[in-house]
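From the shared-data thread, chain only:
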Amino acid sequence: MFSVAEMFGESGTIAVAPLDGSALPDEDAVFDAFRQAFRFPAWFGWNWDALSDCLRDLSWLPADRFLVLVDNSDDVLAGDADARQEFFAVLRRAAQQWANPLTSRRHTAVPFKVVLVRAESVFGIGRARRRGAQRRRRGCRIATVMPRRLRAHLTPSEISPTR
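Structure, as tokens:
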């Protein structure tokens, strides 16, 4: 199990984008959810390149760390395998750029984390405990956790939503 402090350290402002995967059946829903959650500027272009550009910038947010929290992550773009692959590639690219001081817009490594919350019926409690809750992929820390456990670790005193 993990805590917000383990993911981000003890201090700083965290911009949180809480997304419900069951409300993201198509690309337009994904773009709109991110636009609202991270308060994208008016120039956001409603395509994958524009989403990638905005996620790798975020200069308009007064935060020094970022958390994308996707509940019901198995439902994100479930009917479109290509779009789903692009969705996760965009998140991975954003995390990689923020993690690299040479490519980060702030010239320092900035935590950009993605937490995927899966339904208990899909993930299974026993398997989660045996295999551990965290995975690392190409610089993008992805944690898969049980919904009720997650709520115990994300308290209002630890995070500040972007809305």
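The chain has seven helices and six strands.
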